[in-house]
Amino acid sequence: MSLIAKLRTIFTLGQGVLRGITELRAGEDPIVLFREWFEAAKRGGLFLPEAMTLATSTSDGKPSARMVLLKEIDSKGFVFFTNYESRKSKEITDNPNGALVFHWGILERQVRVEGKVEKISQEQSDAYFRTRPRGSQIGAWASSQSSPLDSPTTLAERFDEYEKKFQGQEVPLPDFWGGYRLIPERIEFWQGRLNRLHDRLVYERGEGTWSISRVYP
Asked: Which of 97, 42, 82, 50 is nearest to 69 (CA)?
């Protein structure tokens, strides 16, 4: 972390603890508020502020969770990318209900998102794939994500194989790789406060509008 990033981190330590969040300051659109918090996390010098926990579950309700990276946020929802043959993808196919958690500890802030997960278009996935470093593109081809792997050597050999295969040409988007969007139905903003009297504001989607309520910490 650079000196400037360290100074920013110190400056933003506990930001919001004294003021908290009010319904008036939060506004009517949770996506707007999320963007504000996300930008504050990025300005604060946090490492990978886009990191989020993605929780999915099987058709019979057995949960699993892992860290992924937020790559896009728009009015429709939160976008991330993965292998479509991975464990998370199989669970999403069987049960499209998912949840996200963002935790920015230095700011004493947390955001929880719940909703349905669906694939984005192949065109959108391809546009993002073009922005990835070439090594990451080849890595997507080499990794049979979540499948058994006998040794790291095998993975390295597969990487070399695809590196040679695509030598001198653009690496195409694998048909088994792409993006998902979690379309939020419920978003909770948690702001740490003194004496553990934390603020928790909950947005729930209705017919074209969001309702907002406050819950006990």
From this structure: 50
CATH of the domain at 39: 2.30.110.10
- Provide the domain limits for residue 81: 3-124+182-214
DSSP percent split of the chain into helix, strand, coil, nearest 5: 35, 30, 35
Type and span of the H or E element at 113: strand 109-119
Q: Which of 193, 212, 215, 12 lies closest to 104 in space, CA to CA?
A: 12
Q: pLDDT band for 16, please (50, 70, 90 cuts).
A: low
* Active-site pick, 134, 196, 200, 205: 196
pTM for this entry: 0.89
Six-digit token string for 192: 């740490």
Examine the residue annotation and report whether 186 is marked as an active-site residue of this protein.
no
